[in-house]
Amino acid sequence: MAIKLETLSPAELKALIANAQSQMQVAHGNHVKEVREKIERLLKSSSLTLADVYPTRGGKSAKGPKSVVAPKYRNPADATQTWSGRGKRPLWFVQALRKRDTTAESLLIDGAPKAAPVKAGKKGAARKVAKTTAKKRA
User: Fold this and answer.
1) pTM of the model
2) Predicted confidence (pLDDT) per residue in 91-125, tens digit
3) How far, in Å, are 91, 125, 127 from residue 122 at the CA level?
4) Fewer CB within 10 Å: N-end or C-end of the chain?
C-alpha cells in the first residue's frame, strides 16, 4: 500500500507522522522485549547468568558503595566540616584561603599527607601554574 505524500495536506502529513512515530515506539518496544526473551532463554539453556557473561570491570560493582576517602582538611571555625581534597573545593575552604596567613597546609588534619601548594584566586590558576611548570621542565 503506497501512499502518495504529494497529495496529502499539511494536517494529513502531521497526522501520518504522529501515527508513524507511535507505531515506531510500539515496534521498538516489541523488538526489545523479543531480544530480552532470546537472551534469557540462551542464558537459561547454558546455565549462565548475565553477570557471568558480562562481569563488572575491575571487580567493582557499578552500583556498589563508593570508596570512602579519609578527610584531609578541617574547617578551623567548625570542626565538623571536613574535606577529602577531592572534587570541588567547599566554600569554607575557599574562604579560609582568602584570609591572610592561611594556607592549605595550615588546614590539614594532623596525620594527613601534605598537599601540593593551593592558590586562591581565579579558576584554573593551579592548572596554569602546572602548565608553566611543565613547559619550564621541557
Assistant:
1) 0.39
2) 999 998 888 888 888 888 886 666 555 555 555 55
3) 14, 6, 10
4) N
